[in-house]
Amino acid sequence: MKDLLAVIMLLGIYSLLSASFFVAMDAVDVAFTEASVGAGISTLLMLVAITMTGRSEHPVRHKPLLALAVVIVTGSLLIYGTLDMPYFGSAEAPIHQHVAPRYINDSMQEIGVPNIVTSVLASYRAFDTFGEVVVIFTAGMGVLALLSVARRPVDIKKVNSFNNSMHEQHLVLRIVTKMLIPFILLFALYVQFHGDFGPGGGFQAGVIFASSIFLYTMLFGMTTARRLINQSFIQILAASGVLLYGSVGVVSLLNGKNFFDYSALSSDPVAGQHLGILLIELGVGITVASVMVIIFFKFADRRDYSPSNENKDF
Amino acid sequence: MDTLLQVSSGLFLLIGSFLCLSGGVGILRFPDFYTRMHAVGVTDTLATAMILTGLILHNPDFMVDVKLVIILLMTLFISPTASHALANAAMHEDLAKQNEQ
To answer: Does the predicted model carry a pTM greater than 0.90?
Structure first.
């Protein structure tokens, strides 16, 4: 398959199908994240990438037999390594004997949050989630380091006149978007703070928030979006999300308990857990939204500065 | 009253599924981009609206109904706009190709 656009569409369809069978397996949090990140943001970012690289794959001139051999050897070694593990889904696996019953039985008393996925993600395994947030932040830093171009000064009047001339062509889209963006942002806030009671949480909320900004940028141009969201502001915001997350852990340490032990945050342990989960989900949401916006803006900047797009705004 | 609600929700769901299927058949069988857009533009939105209405009638819980109504409103806004965006982009590109020739 040489057409990259078709490949990207197939990936998006695959993501959406995975999300639907996650729902069929009753894993709604995972399905929500898969649908928003895989079928939403990933597809969009890859589409932006192929506007820069071109739509079809270059023909490969040699057959990569050595790579195929390496993959086969490594894959078979990995499969051999898993032969000793308990069967997939077996009820006697250690995780179903010790770990899962503890979470399911004790989560409501210890943490008091109805959604067990959030309590596992944010409280029992907060350190792993911290690692995830730092990975997202590092991805944003990587994109910033690799794809930065110096912005040349923009002629505001030329850009405004270009935007006004495009208004007629994009009229319906611009009006409907202006009406819908407040609701998308409101939904992002709802998902962020409702993660305790239903599917949701910081990751999905950050992605939904970022997607509303992508929508605005695509329809109104990069210059208008830059005036809305300053580059340094969004970078500070990305870092402060991770900082908020880490500070919650450090505050727990300073109060005498373990790192990320939220019962140290308040006199009542369960209230401390609630406060801790709220703060770290906020940190996650802020970082995810800012990093997505940073990545998209960097991709769009590269596209602006390619020679064929001299006169076009995004 | 109860059976009336169940029967009408089932009817809406059936009509919605049939519309969705016919939109899919239209995409596969029509020869050209614009005819395919014509097949799927209306039937996709209407099918989603019918299915959502069927679900609203099926469900007695108020909070779930409110959320479904909000989803229905959003779909009525977003789906036709998406169809318009596709057709507009295609027409714009066709005109650009014709101008180049």
So the answer is: no
